[in-house]
Amino acid sequence: MIDLEVSIYPKYVTLFGVRLPQSGIIASSVILLLVLGLVVLYFCCIRRFTEKPKGLQNVLELAVESLESFAKGRVGGCARFVAPFALTFIFYVFFTTFVEIFGLPPATEDINCTVALGLCSFVMVNVTSVRFRGVKGRLRNLSTPSAVVFPVKVLADCIAPFSMGIRLFANVLVGGVIMQLIYAVVPLLLPAAISAYFNVLHVGIQTFVFALLFLTYTGEAVEEAE
After folding, report:
1. Is 166 a member of any domain?
2. What is this structure's pTM?
3. Which end of the chain is more exposed for a tag (fewer CB within 10 A), N or C?
4. What radius of gyration, in Å, describes the C-alpha atoms of the chain?
5. What share of the chain has pLDDT > 90, as a percent?
C-alpha cells in the first residue's frame, strides 16, 4: 500500500519567534537573494557591458530583446514598460519552482505565494492601463461595447488574479504529487528521467503560461475602446 500524504497547506517554521511558511517566504527569499547576488556579482565584479556584446552579455541582450518583441505583439507600444515586469514574473516563478529538483520546497506550492503573484499582476495590469490610457480610457475600456457589460468586466478583472494564482498552484502541486507516486511505485531509474521533465520542461511551461496570461490581460486592458 502506498502511503502518500498530500496537503494544500504549507509547512511552517519558527524564525526569531515568528511563525513563517517554509516555502512561501523563507525558501523564496533565499533563492531570490542568491539570484540577485549572482546578477550583482556579474555586473559589478566580473564584467561590464561593452558596445559590442559577446559571451553572456550577448545572451542576456538577446533574451531581453526577444521578450520585448514577444510582449510588443500583445501589448503594443506598452512593451518597453511591461516587459521588465513580465521578466520579473518569469524569473521568480521559474527559480522558486525549479529548486524542487534539489529537494527544496518550491514557493509556488504555497497558495499564498501564487495568489500574491496573481494580485501583483492585477495591480500591474491596471497601473499600465491607467498610465497609457488614463483613468477615463480605462473606464471606457471596461464599458466597451456597452455600459451594460461594465459590472461583468469588473468582476472578471477581479477574478483573474485568483484564477492565475490557483491555476499555477494546482499545476505545481499536481506535478509534485505525480512525482511522489512515481517514486513510491518505481523508486529507481525512472524517477530520475521523469523528474527531468517535471522540474525543467513542466516548470518552464508553467512559467511561460503565467507570463503569457499577464501580457494577455495587459493587452486587453490597454486596448483602445472603439
Report:
1. yes
2. 0.82
3. N
4. 20
5. 24
